[in-house]
From TrEMBL:
Annotated protein name in UniProt: Carbon starvation protein A
Chief localization: membrane
Sequence ranges assigned to domain CstA N-terminal in this UniProt record: 2-356, 361-512
PANTHER family: INNER MEMBRANE PEPTIDE TRANSPORTER, PEPTIDE TRANSPORTER CSTA
Source taxonomy: Bacteria, Bacillati, Bacillota, Clostridia, Eubacteriales
Record's bilayer topology term: Multi-pass membrane protein
Length: 569
């Protein structure tokens, strides 16, 4: 199949979805710019801070993307390009974008509070407590995962103790990028420099940072980086958003644009045929990493999360983005549009793995980031005059992915702090109202330290042993967020029918996935071959399964009451 055809068809579908379905949702839900957003109502200069739409888009997209839209499609490509493309396009338009847009809209109409608070209002306080615990645990896993990913990307030494030049360069560039972002934020928010001029200066600064980083690599061991990253996210997640979060994420969005432009140039200029089969079968028999994904249902829908629908997005939308939204109409391009951009990136990732399918399926290149960077850079190198750009492009693409991971890392830490605080507070309270031991636990610094210690500690001591459950946990989070927004819209008298199919489909997918995981681990334990990891996965999987059932019953009960109330009228 020709890569250009896949890209054009996929992107065209996404654009049509935005123009028609996205706008219809905004009209149906009553998006209204005459209503003041929480960023203005509760502006405090730290968490609540209005941001220009392009700046907030940079933060939102950088936070939700991470390595998700690259990892998922590449791993799921074992089922063929058609199943991946269909799930990314259909899931992106009707599942993921609705999920993200709904979560952001519900949050801004509830003072920028999290989905947990929306659940409190629409379903009940018990459901809110359960969701908050679940969401917090998922965020701790995110912190552990991305801290480990970033640390391994920065690790300056291989197993033999030899220096890894590319990793040292990436580390230098990433550190200098943070300094650049602080300078950019100071110019824009404290010296009121025009955004356009500041952007030009920022882009020039990115180029300078890259040049310096390539010439001056830093070599530090991975475990040391874990500690450094822990200190970094501890500071970054409690500082005012204008100092680092907003400017860094805005500038990092240009790395995304660069990455997608390079990919577009490669696909259009080379317009190659990809070697990946259209459909390989209902069961993964390719298994490049040595571990089969199993049957396409539910594996496809759990493996591809960020490119189609991801529960983590609802935490970002209702956690940091809602507190910075300047006006309600910005929610459509930032939330709905941001998800579709991520879907487009997922399509590009599919093309990348398809281009080097022979090497990938043979197990020669298996790390998703390497697959993506290798596929795109090799594709561009086939264009006349660009043959010598492959090595440089490869390094820059790896850098771009690592920047997204770093962004997701401290955003997840900030979100986890919000959820940890919310768990101890009663309705209507802020952490400033807390008394006694709650005042200590709800203190932003204490809540952040607890989160960082748990996340980084898990990342250093073997989070990978329970990582296989993260995919199902993340998608379960999406199902619960869809359920929450669906109930909330029904409570305020808005059309919520568009949530029914995505909500129940994702519940079925995640419950099936969790059941299969539990069954597998119990089988290992009963056979006497189960280790500590098998016990941990089995227990955690069972806990998530039970939690999902309880929340689903309560949510469906709330929806049922809404239906009876309407019928009585």
């Amino acid at each position: 199949m020709n890569a250009l055809v896949i890209l054009l068809v996929g992107v065209a579908c996404l654009v049509v979805g935005y123009l028609f379905y996205g706008r219809w949702l905004a009209k149906t839900w009553g998006v209204d710019d005459s209503k003041s957003t929480p960023a203005h109502e509760l502006e405090d200069g730290q968490d609540y801070c209005p941001a220009k739409a392009p700046v907030l888009m940079g933060h939102h997209f950088s936070s939700i993307a991470g390595a998700g839209p690259i990892n998922g499609p590449i791993q799921a490509a074992v089922f063929g390009w058609l199943p991946v493309l269909l799930w990314v396009v259909i899931g992106g338009i009707f599942f993921g974008a609705v999920h993200d847009f709904g979560a952001l809209f519900a949050s801004i109409r509830n003072k920028g509070q999290s989905i947990g608070e929306v659940i409190d209002v629409s379903i009940g306080s018990r459901a809110k407590k359960l969701f908050t615990v679940f969401g917090y645990l998922v965020l701790v896993l995110v912190v552990a995962a991305f801290a480990s990913i970033v640390a391994s990307t920065f690790n300056g030494f291989n197993a033999e103790g030899q220096q890894i030049v590319a990793n040292g360069q990436t580390a230098t560039i990433s550190l200098l990028f943070i300094v650049l972002a602080i300078i950019f934020g100071f110019l824009v928010y404290r010296r009121n420099a025009p955004l356009g001029i500041s952007t030009i200066i920022g882009i020039v600064g990115i180029v300078a940072v890259v040049v310096i980083g390539l010439k001056c690599p830093i070599y530090v061991a991975g475990n040391v980086w874990m500690i450094i990253l822990g200190i970094y996210i501890l500071v970054a997640s409690v500082t005012p958003v204008w100092i680092l979060l907003q400017p860094r994420d805005y500038l990092s969005s240009f790395l995304l644009y660069f990455m997608m432009i390079v990919a577009f140039v490669g696909v259009v200029g080379a317009h190659p045929n990809i070697d990946i089969p259209m459909f390989t079968g209902w069961v993964d028999t390719v298994a490049p990493t040595g571990t089969s994904l199993g049957s396409m249902f539910p594996a496809l829908f759990v493996t591809i999360a960020c490119g189609a629908v991801s529960g983590f997005h609802s935490l970002v939308a209702s956690g940091t983005t809602a507190k910075q939204l300047n006006k309600e109409s910005d929610a459509l391009p930032i939330a709905y549009g941001g998800m579709l951009i991520e879907s487009a990136l997922a399509i590009v990732s599919l093309i990348a793995v398809g281009y080097i399918w022979t090497s990938y399926s043979a197990g020669e290149v298996t790390t998703p980031t390497q697959v993506f960077a290798s596929g795109i850079s090799k594709m561009v190198a086939t264009i006349p005059g660009l043959a010598g750009a492959e090595t440089t492009l490869y390094s820059l693409l790896v850098l771009a992915v690592s920047v997204f991971c770093l962004t997701s890392l401290d955003t997840a830490t900030r979100l986890a702090r919000y959820m940890f605080q919310e768990f101890w507070l009663e309705k209507g309270e802020t952490y400033k109202d807390a008394k006694g031991y709650k005042a200590v636990l709800c203190n932003p610094y204490v809540a952040t330290v607890i989160t960082v210690v748990l996340g980084v500690g898990l990342g250093m001591t073997g989070y990978a042993k329970i990582w296989p459950l993260f995919g199902a946990a993340n998608q379960l989070l999406a199902a619960l967020a869809l359920l929450a927004v669906c109930c909330w819209l029904g409570n305020i008298g808005k059309n919520n029918k568009m949530f029914y199919i995505p909500m129940f489909f994702m519940l079925i997918v995640t419950l099936c996935s969790l059941f299969m995981t539990i069954k597998s681990k119990v089988g290992l334990i009963m056979a006497g071959s189960g280790d500590a990891a098998a016990y941990a996965q089995g227990i955690l999987g069972a806990a998530l399964f039970i939690l999902a059932i309880i929340l689903t019953v309560e949510g469906v009960g709330a929806l049922s009451k809404q239906g009876k109330t309407k019928a009585a009228k």
